[in-house]
Structure formats: C-alpha cells, structure tokens
C-alpha cells in the first residue's frame, strides 16, 4: 500500500478542509487519509454544523439548500437532491416512497458523492479511486467528470454490465476484479497511487450528503418526520445518513422524536440482521453469498456498530428477505408505475414481515436505484 500522504501529491495541502477525528479521539493529520492510521477506525467530522431552519436556502432546489449545514466548499453539483415523496399502495396498507432513483445518475449515491467530490476538488485533488458494485462508481464517474477529476473504479467481476457501461461512458477507468465485493475494495486500496480514495463506505462526508435526504423528508412532511423508515442496508450509508439527519433535527428541537429505523438485508448476506437477532454489539463478517440484490452485498459494514445502535435507540429492527420476495416486491412496484433495481426492492419486500410493527404508522421507504440500471 502507498504511504498515506501520497494521496495528496500535487494537491493544495493547505486548502480549507473539515477536521476529521476517529472514535478513538485521534485527529487526522491529512484530509485525504481514508481511515485513522492509529486504530483503523473510520473518520468522523470533528465538528459539524447544527441544523438551523433559518439557514435553509429556499431559493436553491437541490441538496445545496442545506449548504449552511454541510462542509463549506464550492459545490460540484448536478442538481442532486430534491427527490419526490409519493404515496404508494401495498397489500399491507401504504407507504411514502422517497424517489432517490431520480437522482442525476439514477441512484441515491449522488447526494454523498456530490459532497465528497466537492471536498476533494476544494483540496485540489486531481484523481479519485473508489470500489463499488456499480452505483457508487457510476456516481463518482459523473461527479468526477463534472469536477474535472480523473476517476478509477474497482468493481467485482459480477457487477452489472449496465452499471459498468455507465461508469465507462462518464470517462471513468473501470477495473474489474475477480472475486467478490470485498476483493474489489482490497484491490482498490492497494492501487491508489497518487489518487484520493473517495470511499462511500469510509468517508464521513458521504454520510453528510445522505443526511440531506432526512432534512428533505422533514420539509416535505411540513416540518415533521415519519413514524418509521424502512431502508435497504449493505454498508448502511443511506440508513446512517438518514439516522444522523433525523438526530440533528431532534437536537435542534424541531421534532420530538426520531423515526424508528428498520434495516433490510438480503438473506444471502445479512450480517446486520444476524447480529440484531443475536443481540451482538457489532456484526461479524459473513460470506457475501449470491443474490439479485447485488448493491447490498457487504460481508461486514464499516459502521456496523453504529447501525445496531441506531436500531436499538430508535426502536427499529433488522430483517432479511429472500430473492423471491424481492422479485415480488419489484413486480409490485412496477405495477404501481415505479421501476427500481432489485436492491431497491428489498425494503418493500420486508413490509409484509414488519406488518405488525408498522401497523398504523406513517412509513417512508427510500427507493434507491433506478430500474433502468438493470434492464
Ligand atoms: Zn484512531
């Protein structure tokens, strides 16, 4: 592996950057380090702005309306955020679908990528690498193109052909790695060279971008939050971004309680659901397995302990669903006029399992990735 500081060769080391700190209290000496070199923990923002409703820029129709609550960098934007919240009927009743698949590259990843790439650009970084099953790589490819940053994406060989084409068409170099999703991550980190590792799994700014989804939901519901949110979970980026976003609303005194957060995994790869059932404080690594929900094949999430804490503190739960249930949910959504990729349908597939817990509740389900990705 290259030395940590190699990431910043040619970059403006003294550009303004957010200060990063790990849970062990170590401060980052270099903004492009992807994790704490002392204890290998993920970075968190040492300080982050509190939510101030007066600071929302209501003239901006993208997530940058919340710029005052995000790291202060010139935005690289493709108009991400501002996704619709629409009511969908299911046999269990109805839910509110947050149409994240209408983001610029067709997946929810664009919120986090926009914030991460804006930050990298402000640092003067000229090349970024990432590992991805497809959507994060496609998102990075697009925002890197918009920022004038070179992108190289490491994908597992099983990644969908459409997603690989999407990355390549946006000008990213796509590196296929034999083995699973974990092998792509290892290969990526061994071959960063002078590039920054723009990891959607590790970079806390990615979660900051995802938190804007919670703030939008709060605005769209007229200044309130739903009773429950049901979310697909692999690494849990959207799940944690939403949970952190709702928590900032409560800290600001804008809501009395946060939604119950439900994590849904594929039965083929369900480390969070396993740990939840067993009462463990963090997930243990499981085999990646094989599933049509390829976007959430994560053998052990980076912030698995935080996911489990959110489940406990909000009164939620983790469940897993089989591919047949996912296919049925995907068909149901198509019947309602909504085309999503299989990974996005796992949360809807879990609604029958959660029927008792969600009875009478206002439920939001983010629909994360476009069905066009897997046609
Ligand atoms: Zn540390």
Automatic annotation (TrEMBL):
GO terms for biological process: isoleucine biosynthetic process; L-serine catabolic process; L-threonine catabolic process. Residues 76-369 form the Tryptophan synthase beta chain-like PALP domain. It holds the Pfam family PALP. Keywords: Lyase, Pyridoxal phosphate. Its cofactor is pyridoxal 5'-phosphate. The keyword Transferase does not apply. One of its GO terms (molecular function) is threonine deaminase activity. InterPro entries: Ser/Thr_Dehydratase, TrpB-like_PALP, TrpB-like_PALP_sf. The keyword Acetylation does not apply. This is Threonine synthase. It comes from Micromonospora narathiwatensis.
């Amino acid at each position: 592996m290259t030395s940590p500081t190699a990431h910043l060769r040619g970059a403006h080391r003294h550009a303004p950057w957010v200060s990063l700190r790990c849970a062990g209290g170590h401060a980052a000496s270099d903004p492009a380090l992807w994790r704490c070199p002392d204890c290998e923990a993920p970075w968190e923002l040492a300080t982050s702005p509190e939510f101030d409703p007066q600071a929302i820029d209501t003239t901006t129709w993208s997530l940058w309306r919340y710029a005052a609550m995000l790291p202060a960098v010139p935005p690289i934007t493709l108009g991400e955020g501002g996704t619709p919240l629409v009511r969908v009927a299911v046999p269990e009743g109805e839910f509110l679908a947050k149409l994240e698949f209408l983001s610029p590259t067709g997946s929810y990843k664009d919120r986090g990528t926009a914030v991460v790439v804006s930050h990298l650009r402000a640092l003067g970084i000229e090349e970024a690498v990432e590992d991805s099953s497809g959507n994060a790589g496609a998102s990075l490819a697009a925002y890197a193109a918009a920022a004038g940053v070179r992108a190289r994406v490491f994908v597992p060989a099983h990644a969908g052909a459409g997603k690989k084409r999407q990355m390549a068409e946006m000008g990213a170099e796509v590196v296929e790695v034999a083995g699973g999703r974990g092998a792509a991550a290892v290969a990526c980190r061994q071959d960063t060279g002078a590039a920054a590792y723009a990891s959607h799994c590790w970079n806390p700014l990615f979660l900051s971008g995802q938190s804007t989804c919670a703030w939008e939901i709060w605005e769209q519901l007229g200044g309130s939050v739903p009773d429950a949110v049901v979310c697909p979970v692999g690494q849990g980026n959207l799940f944690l971004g939403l949970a952190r976003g709702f928590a900032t609303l409560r800290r600001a005194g804008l809501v009395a309680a946060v939604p119950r957060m439900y994590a849904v995994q594929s039965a083929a790869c369900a480390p969070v659901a396993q740990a939840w059932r067993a009462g463990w404080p963090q997930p243990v690594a499981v085999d990646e397995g094989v599933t049509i929900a390829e976007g959430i094949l994560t053998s052990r999430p980076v912030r698995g302990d935080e996911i489990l804490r959110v489940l406990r503190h909000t009164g939620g739960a983790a469940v897993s669903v089989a591919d047949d249930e996912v296919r049925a949910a995907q068909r149901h959504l198509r019947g309602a006029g909504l085309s999503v990729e299989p990974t996005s349908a796992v949360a809807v597939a879990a609604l029958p399992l959660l029927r008792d817990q969600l009875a009478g509740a206002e439920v939001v389900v983010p629909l994360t990735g476009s069905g066009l990705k897997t046609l």
